[in-house]
């Protein structure tokens, strides 16, 4: 097992002309390999070099009744105690400690009680290491902000089943002040996402940093996903939007948004892929090939999808990215305006286009296995939720079978 020793440290060669010296805590870790591990951690403090007691790891007064010496010594002791606490935790977990790990754990030390502080720090680190993509990074910020609004001073030991129940109820509630809505109620599936995010960061805190999370375990908190009926557009509704685009009265940004949405109706693009779509993805005049953004940090998957002529029609730019789009929030707001103007009474979002493709593909003779490949799904069960066919659609498809036999002579009536 490793050994660690800590002491107050200054660089003698770097003492300033006025006699002041920068203060460090030196960490010396041995028995971890062929070479000992030594590192100096900057305290961001200065003190006269001749007023430092290295034997006691403390500062002496610069003059009688020095008002700063006690506070400075407290900072030194606090820093040393933090490193000792980190070392103790690693020993109890039977883990090897290095100064690189000490440096990382010191960043988390002050976040080892505060849920918000931990999530903020861990989120930045995960994004910097490319463990999560920018869209996930921004979504996790929304979860953090919801906790700040709920209980900003939440500490790990109080996160139990009741905390989750209170958090869920807070997210579901609408809050009014002086007759004005200051917080809207959140939909069930958004609540599911928020709780899923919190549980993921609790697991990171417990598994990677040894931070105490109550023994009930986040896994015991039930977080059921509520499947709701997906929204898709029928052929006649898509035609209404195409006609609106062709009117020639839309502003530049609105034109880009509607073009992009219609493009997705004929390609099944996710919104995350849409924002990254570029001419570099075109492997031929008829196909696009790209690494899906969704789950790219954990399960990267490259898909090839058909690029049919009507979809090409909607590509706005001649080179580089296919579209110049506003924020996703503004994109969805603009779609709602289009639907109202076209008399389409449906709750349409960016994802509606993907379901619309599934409906059109199956309605006009596609098969579920081909749709599964185009959508990039792993499970056929997921693809089934995109195969929107009603009774009339099923009749049309069945009649196609009938049409294949229409040239046969009439059947004989058998008595």
Overview of the molecule:
With 415 residues, the chain is an alpha+beta fold. The protein has three domains: 104 residues, no CATH class; 109 residues; 166 residues, Intergrase catalytic core (hpI Integrase, Chain A), CATH 1.10.443. Helix content is 45%, strand content 12%. The strands form four sheets. Strands 1-2-3 form a three-stranded antiparallel beta sheet, with helices on one face. A two-stranded antiparallel ribbon has the order 4-5. Strands 6-7 form a two-stranded antiparallel ribbon. It is elongated and about 110 Å long.
Name some characteristics of this structure.
415 residues; hpI Integrase, Chain A; 3 domains; three-stranded antiparallel beta sheet; two-stranded antiparallel sheet; DNA-binding; DNA_brk_join_enz
């Amino acid at each position: 097992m490793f050994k660690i020793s800590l002491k107050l440290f200054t660089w003698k060669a770097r003492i300033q002309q006025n006699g002041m010296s920068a203060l460090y805590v030196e960490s010396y870790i041995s028995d971890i390999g062929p070479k000992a591990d030594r590192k100096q951690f900057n305290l961001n403090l200065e003190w006269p070099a001749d007023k430092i007691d290295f034997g006691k790891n403390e500062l002496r007064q610069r003059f009688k009744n020095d008002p700063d010496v006690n506070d400075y010594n407290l900072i030194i002791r606090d820093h040393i105690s933090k490193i000792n606490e980190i070392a103790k935790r690693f020993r109890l977990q039977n883990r090897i400690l290095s100064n690189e790990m000490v440096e990382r754990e010191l960043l988390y030390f002050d976040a080892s009680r505060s849920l918000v502080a931990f999530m903020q720090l861990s989120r930045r680190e995960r994004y910097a290491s490319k463990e999560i993509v920018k869209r996930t990074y921004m979504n996790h910020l929304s979860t953090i902000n919801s906790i700040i609004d709920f209980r900003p001073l939440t500490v790990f030991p109080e996160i139990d089943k009741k905390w989750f129940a209170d958090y869920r109820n807070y997210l579901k509630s609408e809050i009014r002040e002086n007759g004005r809505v200051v917080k809207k109620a959140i939909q069930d599936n958004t609540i599911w996402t928020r709780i899923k995010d919190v549980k993921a960061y609790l697991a990171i805190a417990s598994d990677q940093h040894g931070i105490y999370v109550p023994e009930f375990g986040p896994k015991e908190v039930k977080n059921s996903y509520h499947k709701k009926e997906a929204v898709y557009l029928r052929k006649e509704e898509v035609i209404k939007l195409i006609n609106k685009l062709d009117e020639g009265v839309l502003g530049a940004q609105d034109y880009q948004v509607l073009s992009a949405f219609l493009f997705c109706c004929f390609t099944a693009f996710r919104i995350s892929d849409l924002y990254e779509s570029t001419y570099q993805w075109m492997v031929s005049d008829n196909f696009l090939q790209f690494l899906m953004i969704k789950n790219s940090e954990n399960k990267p998957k490259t898909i090839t999808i058909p690029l049919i002529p009507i979809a090409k029609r909607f590509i706005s730019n001649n080179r580089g990215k296919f579209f110049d789009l506003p924020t996703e929030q503004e994109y969805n707001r603009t779609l709602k305006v289009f639907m109202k103007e076209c008399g389409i009474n449906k709750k349409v979002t960016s994802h509606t286009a993907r379901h619309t493709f599934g409906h059109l593909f199956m309605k006009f003779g596609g098969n579920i296995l081909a749709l599964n490949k185009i959508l990039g799904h792993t499970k056929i069960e997921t693809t089934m939720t995109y195969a929107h066919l009603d009774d009339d659609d099923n009749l049309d498809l069945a009649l196609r079978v009938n049409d294949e036999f229409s040239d046969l002579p009439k059947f004989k009536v058998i008595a």
